[in-house]
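Hi V.,

You were right to ask for the full record rather than a summary. Here it is.
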Amino acid sequence: MEVEYVLKSERKDLAVDKSDTVTIARGHTIIKVPCISVDSGPDETIKPFDDFHKPEGEGYFRISIWETGGAESNSGKAEIVCGPKGEKLKPVRIIRKKENANGQHALFAGKAFVVVSVTQHRSNFTVSISDYEIDPNSGTVKSSNIGVWNLGYIKLINEETFKDIPESIKDFIEPIKAAIEKSLHYRCDEPHYFCEKSENK
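Predicted structure:
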C-alpha cells in the first residue's frame, strides 16, 4: 500500500530528477508520498512525513495498492483487493507477464479498499482481512483488521468450505475464494479478482 498525491494538472517540472516518485499520466501529476506509521497493531494510522508539502494547484491524496501473489511448489500467498462489501473493482493498471510471476498483477487506486490476504502451506490456509481508508485532504490512512480465519486444510473449494466462516468476514466469501485460488496458482502471472467497470458506486 502506498500513498500518492494527485495533482490535477501536468507539472513536468516536478518530474525532473524524480522519475521514480513522480509520474505524469492523463493530464495529472502523481507523486508518491513518503509516510510514517504513528500507531501500530491491529488498527494502524499512517501519515505523510511532516516535510512533505503539497505542490501548488488543485489535488488530493489517494491510496494505491496491488493485487499480488501466487504459488511455488508447496506454498503460496495472495493479496486480493476489493470494495467494502467484497465487490470487484476496476484496476488502473494490469500486468500479465511471465517474468512477473507471483508478483504485482493489478493496481488499484482510490479512497478506500479492503485487502484479503491468504497464505497456504501444503493447502493449509490462513485468511486475514484488513481495510484501508484515506483522508483525501490530509493523506492520513486509517487501517483496521476486519478478521482472521485459520481455515486449515482444503482439498476442494465448495459450500462446505465456508460453513464455519466468522461472521465478521461473511461479506468477503468471493474475494476469499479468489485469494485461495491465486495462492494455489503456480507461478501466477495474472490478476484473479477485478472487473472492467467498477462495481463500487
